[in-house]
Amino acid sequence: MKPLDMKDIAIIDAFPAYDCERRVLSTGCGDGRIDFHLAEMGYCVYAFDSKTYDTWTDKKNLTFQEADIFEPQCLPSAPIVICSQVLEHLVEYKRALANLIVLAEVRLVITVPYKKSFNGKIHCNFWDDYTSGEFKDIHEFQTLCHPYAVAISKIRTKPKDANTNKYDYLIIVDKRQNYTRGPQ
What we know:
Layout: H1 6-13, E1 23-27, H2 33-40, E2 44-49, E3 62-66, E4 78-84, H3 93-103, E5 104-113, E6 127-128, E7 136-137, H4 140-144, E8 148-155, H5 161-164, E9 168-178, E10 182-183
Parallel strand pairs: 1-2, 1-4, 2-3, 4-5, 6-7
Antiparallel strand pairs: 5-9, 8-9, 9-10
């Protein structure tokens, strides 16, 4: 099992601490690094990506499948949905985000890179703290995920990233805080 990086740990730390089943839907899971760890921690994980990876091995509490984020009817909903390092690759990221909000029963945890911090050549979307030129304002997630509570923070992936100004945005959408109905 590959070790977790600081981004993975921040994602796990963003999970609800109470009032939530230990089921996770991991979207765009890639090689499944975080998913193997979550299964070892006792979470029941359904992980998918648009292509199959050689590293995928179903285990107790862990199922991998090839699936499309744009076909949410083929995916199970879950209390916790992870979407890490996916939206920057999708031209229709807003449509994918809308699907993820529907699939998340309690909390949606998203990461996207800051500007072109990590391998920007294969990305079609870039976010910054404000709108400028080719960068979208990261705070658009507050509007896109309305009426739910949205928290946005910056996280490092590796300690050395502090010297190179590389980081990711961690976006947490909590559906328990619905501002059209008030606190639940």
